[in-house]
UniProtKB/TrEMBL annotation:
Protein name, entry field: Oxidoreductase
InterPro entries on file: Gfo/Idh/MocA-like_OxRdtase_N, Gfo/Idh/MocA_Oxidoreductase, GFO_IDH_MocA-like_dom, NAD(P)-bd_dom_sf
UniProt keyword NAD present: yes
SUPFAM superfamilies hit by this protein: Glyceraldehyde-3-phosphate dehydrogenase-like, C-terminal domain, NAD(P)-binding Rossmann-fold domains
Domain GFO/IDH/MocA-like oxidoreductase: 134-252
Protein origin, superkingdom: Bacteria
Domain Gfo/Idh/MocA-like oxidoreductase N-terminal span(s) in chain numbering: 5-121
PANTHER family: D-GLUCOSIDE 3-DEHYDROGENASE, UDP-N-ACETYL-2-AMINO-2-DEOXY-D-GLUCURONATE OXIDASE
Organism lineage: Bacteria, Bacillati, Actinomycetota, Actinomycetes, Micrococcales
């Protein structure tokens, strides 16, 4: 088991969570360097976390600090170019979400990974609690049975002041609203639990907030295994909650939390007559660790130690990004979208707003609402 040399790029809000969680990996990681374009923020962060290497740009950090892994904690529009720069230098990348602003951008990763031999992974920390591993094991297996119907709600509340940060709420900088920026965590977990999605029909709308993207989306998704799910991503909901519910043949699996869970946030309900089989199956699983960044970091180190592909790697991160693109495509064209439809040449391949269609549709809807 080696100790990995880690660097953090972007030393704002989420970087502190990364630094704190790196300190909880039991010595598996050494935080050797940090980078920010803002010298004041960089110095404050490095001072607080005892980091020696301080850099104002990524190229200097890669050359000077020689990290094994770079954590990208920069605003969304920088993720893909910075990921490619690291991968081409042979350095593994753990990028904050969203992994890219479009499928076209994301697909540039493949060449960079092949060139440098390093791997990309996206922060999807909800996949990594013990209870989600247990649920993944049992959903679709004999004990819980086939998943039939599901719902996945990210119902959060953000006042207008939330969009004061310049990169928030624009297609160019963030790639979308709550679908790309907030609900993506929750529906990533849904996909992790249910497997590949097949077809989506969606609405995305701007109900109330002073943003140029949607502030609400709602989708109806059919999965390859036949399950049907609704997904709602809202920034308008005063009682905030993040929830997943999956009804299988013999058990209902429910997760209710906000930004992260412990096993206590999960509830399993057996169908009548199936109590013993369902309860024994659930309590027979390891159920200690909650979700969180450190759980993902440790899973990443275990994969690197063993020479395995990284968890939440490029392939599965792409499936989640593809569902986000398909939600927008369906919402703004008014038609169902199937997995695999959004390929080069499709308007939603190059960007989540379909070459300006999203902005047009949202403006028209907002105008209609204002007149009513
Ligand atoms: N996984 C989660 O639960 C979670 C939670 C919050 C935010 N995020 C994601 O984390 C990312 C950062 O969010 P935040 O709230 O920390 O943003 P932030 O604005 O607080 O911090 C971003 C930092 O990056 C720096 N920066 C900007 N351009 C840079 C560049 N080219 N090179 C180096 N540094 C640069 C800024 O100066 C700033 O210090 C976003 O993608 C966001 O979606 C993830």
């Amino acid at each position: 088991m080696r100790t990995y040399r880690v660097a953090i790029v972007g030393t704002g809000g989420i970087a502190a969570v990364h630094a704190d969680n790196l300190a909880r990996t039991g010595g598996r990681a050494e935080l050797v360097a940090a980078c920010d374009v803002d010298q004041g923020r960089l110095d404050a962060f490095a001072g607080q976390h005892g980091i020696e290497g301080r850099y104002l740009n990524l190229a200097d950090l890669l050359a000077g600090a020689k990290p094994d892994i770079v954590h990208l904690c920069t605003p969304p529009m920088f993720h893909i170019d910075q990921a490619i720069e690291c991968l081409e230098a042979g350095v593994h990348v753990l990028s904050e979400k969203p992994p890219a602003l479009s499928l076209a951008d994301f697909d540039r990763l493949e060449k960079a990974q092949a060139k440098g031999g390093a791997q990309f992974s996206c922060v999807f920390q909800h996949r990594f609690g013990d209870a989600s591993a247990a649920a993944k094991e049992l959903i679709g297996a004999a004990e819980f049975g086939r998943p039939l119907v599901a719902r996945c709600d990210t119902l959060w509340y953000r006042p207008d002041s939330y969009w004061d940060l310049p990169w928030r709420g624009t297609w160019n900088a963030e790639g979308g609203g709550p679908t790309m920026g907030h609900g993506i965590h929750q529906f990533d977990l849904l996909l992790h639990l249910l497997g590949p999605w097949e077809e989506v029909t969606a609405i995305a709308t701007r109900q109330d907030r002073a943003t140029s993207t949607e502030d609400l989306s709602a989708a109806l998704v059919r999965f390859e295994n036949g399950a049907v799910a609704t997904i709602v991503n809202s920034l308008l909901s005063p009682r905030e909650t993040s929830e997943i519910r999956i009804d299988c043949e013999f058990a209902t699996v429910e997760l209710s939390h906000l930004y992260g869970y412990s096993t206590d946030n999960w509830t399993i309900t057996a169908a009548p007559g199936h109590e013993e089989q369902v309860n024994n199956a659930w309590t027979g699983q390891p159920l200690e660790r909650g979700s969180g960044h450190s759980a993902q970091f440790l899973a990443m180190y275990a994969a690197l130690d063993a020479g395995r592909p990284l968890p939440a790697g490029a392939d599965s991160a792409r499936q989640t990004l593809e569902l986000a693109a398909a939600i927008y495509a369906s919402a703004f064209t008014g038609t169902p979208v199937r997995r695999g439809d959004i390929v080069p040449g499709h308007p939603f391949y190059a960007g989540m707003d379909g070459e300006g269609l999203g902005a047009e549709v949202l403006d028209a809807t907002a105008l209609r609402a204002a007149r009513a």
